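Work through what follows:
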Amino acid sequence: MKRLLTTCLVVLVAATSAWSMDLRQGFGKYRFGETCQNLFAGPSFAVERARPIWNAQLQMFGLAYDPDVVAQSPFILRYDKDEKPIFDGVPLNRVYYGCDKNTDRFSLVVLVHDLLAVRQLVEKTTAQLGPPTNTTMIQTIWALPDLYVQIDQVYMLIYDRRAGKI
């Protein structure tokens, strides 16, 4: 009986870990497309002043702090002050959850990491999504029909194209 219980626990933990890092579904326990008001509420959540901006010409995201530019972003970023985030075994500094201003739907994740984590993040993302569609010295990008992922020296952005429209 003890062996069966242990086996069930191991299977449950493995299934939970595998789901939590399925980038096509969301990040951790948060699923893309859900209402942010329900997901990111509570005393440990705060609103970040930076906002992601989509550059249509370069076909990539950037983070802006300038109030005039921030006002143009379709997103609001929220974060859990108490969260100790990890992406598939890679420790992160912070995770920002992006919510569409108009629909209040969760569609974007911004992972803040250090430079030493870039190689691991690219390897783990490649294992899930296949080879990147574009690689430069500074960025690795997966521009897929349902998902856009961008990894640079400081940020990893995951954008669900089904839950949001940029």
